[in-house]
Design a protein that fits this description.
This protein folds into 2 domains: about 5-70, no CATH class; about 90-170, no CATH class. Helices cover about 50% and strands about 10% of the residues. It has helices at about 25-30, 55-70, 75-80, 90, 95-120, 140-145, 145-160, and strands at about 5-10, 15, 40-45, 50-55. A 4-stranded antiparallel sheet has the order 2-1-3-4.
Length: about 170
């Protein structure tokens, strides 16, 4: 996944964003939009820039307003992440290389807890038993959904709130 937040702005100027979208098509499908009838913007988290892929000046303001309100400062970004809107990898990329490990290890601990809780239910996904014996299993993470993303975000915020731990573009 790239580190972009995809935003479509409909002909009426309303912005649409979907958590974890990997493309404009993902956003369009979620909201029943016709992608080619919308204006398309990406906010690159690692460069902190709004990229206009298909735009007009008036819809640019709609996309920019979304960015300013939700992502315009490190504090706003942390609040956005706390709601489960960012995935683990996107958050890791916003930390300096030396601080990513601490965060990723904390997420691994969270993943292990979800896997152990699933295993304790003794109701494996496969008829033959659990395929992730002794490993992290993706199924309980998918089942947890936003709860998992929020738990990882809480760990990320502990690291990201210290300015020195952020990549340069997010230091201020």
């Amino acid at each position: 996944m790239d580190n972009a937040i995809y935003c479509l702005v409909d002909p009426n100027g309303k912005p649409y964003v979907k958590d974890g979208a990997a493309s404009y098509a993902d956003v369009a499908a979620t909201y029943g939009l016709v992608e080619n009838e919308c204006h398309a913007y990406r906010f690159d988290l690692t460069t902190r820039r709004l990229i206009a892929d298909r735009t007009t000046p008036s819809t640019g303001w709609c996309a920019w307003d979304f960015v300013v309100v939700h992502l315009g400062s490190p504090e706003l970004l942390m609040a956005f992440a706390a709601k489960g809107h960012l995935n683990k990898q996107a958050m890791a990329e916003l930390l300096t290389v030396q601080h990513r490990r601490v965060y990723l290890e904390a997420c691994a601990g969270i993943e292990k807890k979800y896997t152990e809780a699933c295993t304790a239910k003794n109701d494996p996904c496969l008829e033959s038993g659990c395929s992730a014996e002794g490993e992290i299993c993706l199924q309980p993470l998918l089942s947890a959904g936003d709860e998992y993303y929020k738990a990882c975000a809480a760990e990320w915020i502990k690291v990201f709130q210290i300015q020195a731990n952020r990549i340069d573009v997010w230091k201020n």
